[in-house]
UniProtKB/TrEMBL annotation:
This is LysR family transcriptional regulator. Residues 11-68 form the HTH lysR-type domain. The lineage of its organism: Bacteria, Pseudomonadati, Pseudomonadota, Gammaproteobacteria, Oceanospirillales. The keyword rRNA processing does not apply. The keyword GTP-binding does not apply. InterPro entries: HTH-type_LysR_regulators, LysR_HTH_N, LysR_subst-bd, WH-like_DNA-bd_sf, WH_DNA-bd_sf.
């Protein structure tokens, strides 16, 4: 405890800013310029920081400043601390202007059109002055944002099997994965060939390998004794994938909720393929050992209630 109190007493905001800036720029001269200080002053500050921690944090080389293993750990800490401080300052500013806080939600796009959108609209009716930011990404990206404290909560899936050590997970629902092609595609006017032939003959648009949806798809190919498609366009952007499928002969596998509007307007057509059956449920991901207050807890309650109706 004494060591902790000593560190708190000697570590300053500028120290954290120095560690974070030097960690990203890897150049002391550029860091000094970014912090509006002279290079000798920056050198003295770095020396002071290393004295506080009692070890070397950066190695000086001809190619710049390279963090030690402990330096890498402190860079992550400084980045996260500065992000939290920035968000706190923004919430205080909004409160002084008559606002009522900020909520940042990350969601996979399959849950966003229905469950998440409905829940956000309901929350805004209750708290009109609340600033809400919605970030739509894939599960692997959202887990990373949650780890970095750049989102308050995530509606996603575990991207790896060990992430249950970092986050709590509460299942909310699941997506129905469907396969679509452009309007007038040759496969729509004839009997569908076996899946093995489709994988060999036609191009496919698939999510990146790090995503749970892609991993579930590959698992199904494995269970059927099949190999991955020969011709793949790997695309992490929903918008880009929809443009690609409409302008090519590729098959696209994606959540039905995302494709619904395009199906109803006839821009794309659904194929009678059952894929994505092993995809695990998505749910509410939160950081372990974190005490959440309003508006996070209020939004989570709305999510749970709407998820029960949605199911």
């Amino acid at each position: 405890m004494d060591g902790y109190q000593t560190l708190i007493g000697r570590l300053r905001y500028k120290h954290l800013l120095m560690i974070s800036t030097l960690g990203s720029r890897r150049n002391l001269h550029q860091t000094a310029a970014a912090m509006h200080m002279s290079q000798p002053a920056a050198t003295r500050m770095l020396s002071e920081i290393e004295k506080v921690f009692g070890c070397q944090l950066f190695e000086r080389t001809a190619r710049g400043m390279h963090p030690t293993s402990l330096g890498e750990m402190l860079i992550d800490f400084a980045d996260n601390a500065l992000t939290r401080l920035d968000r706190c300052a923004e919430e205080v500013r909004r409160y002084q202007l008559g606002g009522r806080g900020q909520l940042t939600v990350g969601a996979i796009m399959g849950a966003a059109p229905d469950l998440v959108a409905q829940s956000i609209i309901e929350l805004k009716r209750q708290r009109p002055l609340l600033q809400i930011r919605l970030m739509g990404e894939t599960s692997d990206q959202l887990v990373e944002l949650l780890e970095q404290d750049r989102v308050d909560i995530a509606i996603a899936r575990y991207a790896t099997s060990i992430q249950h050590n970092q986050f709590d997970f509460e299942p909310l629902g699941n997506e129905t994965m469907i396969t679509v092609v452009r309007r007038g595609h040759p496969l729509c006017s004839s009997e569908l060939p076996p899946l093995e032939q489709l994988l060999e003959t036609w191009p496919w648009i698939l999510q990146p390998m790090a995503t749970p949806a892609r991993q579930a798809l590959e698992k199904e190919f494995e269970m059927e004794g099949l190999v991955s498609p020969r011709d793949i366009i790997e695309c992490g952007s929903i918008f880009a994938a929809l443009q690609l499928v409409q302008q090519s002969d590729a098959l696209l596998v994606m959540a039905e909720t995302i494709l619904r509007d395009h199906l109803q307007t006839g821009l794309i057509e659904r194929l009678p393929l059952l894929l994505g059956r092993t995809l695990s449920p998505f749910g509410l991901l939160t950081r372990k050992d974190t005490l959440y207050g309003e508006p996070v807890t209020g939004f989570c309650e709305i999510l749970r209630r709407n998820a029960a109706d949605w199911r």
